[in-house]
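Bench notes, afternoon.
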Amino acid sequence: MFRFSKEQKVCSIAGIKIGGQPGENPPLLIASMFHNKDVILEDRKGKFNRQKAKELIKKQEDLSTSTGIPSMVAMVANTPEEAQIYIDFYLETTSMPFGIDMWVAEKRAQATEYVAKLGVQDKFLYNSITPWDKDIKGQVNKLKDLGIKHVVVQAFDDKDQSPVGRLKSLEYILSQGADNFDTVIVDTSVMNLPATSFSLIANRLIKEKLGLPCGGAYSNGTHMWKTSKDIWGIDGFKAMDAVAQAMSSALWSDFNFYGPIVTAPRIFPAVATAHILLSTLVYDETKFIPRNNNLPIRKFFPDFIEKLVTGAARK
């Protein structure tokens, strides 16, 4: 269940390892900033509360260090000019890698050109090549010309929304040249909370067949269920959000677009806890815990690991 016969690719973005066998590396947590209704955003011309933004980034960095869970930020922008302001601010504030979240392909391309102009392709994650793009080959060639190294490929088929449909969608996109990057990570397109399971099964299918790092925007499933706040109140929503994202992160996921960065204080401990449980599930199957000091189980339960190893040696 937690070991693939297919060799698993491990990618690296600015030193962050993504992928591998389940439990081998902690999942990359990717926050959202400057999205609509973001508390720090004042207008769509690039005006925002810079001090508060710095505090939120610092808080995520601290949580990342304490849990061992790597992190970065995807910044939402409507125009290339707006994106440039956020990119400049981010690079002045942190050494974490980053992405730009822009739905319109032409504007996303212009923002990517700015990244190339700055020469920071090593720490940039392009998000994303999608099945809805009209010219995937052209987009790939443009990205290669710009020196882009790390991309997200979104897997989804409107006509076949099953896990197998996501796999087929991915294979088509890869056949258009999207496999020709240093890093290719697959977003298996979360549509709502219950359908998140289809994305997780797709993660398993893709890792089984292709060995690529997989994950998703699990916050799509939780934050779109707006009536949950009416049913359980804000505390109930927070619990639901943390549980769903943590569980998803443990099931064949190498990364998680976890939503607004303000939610980091609940998401990082939740995902770290899920990964600790994943580590012992993997151990039961393989009798091995990877020697990765950033694994939450190694950070928080070294004595437990020692007992496991000692007990296994005695047997």
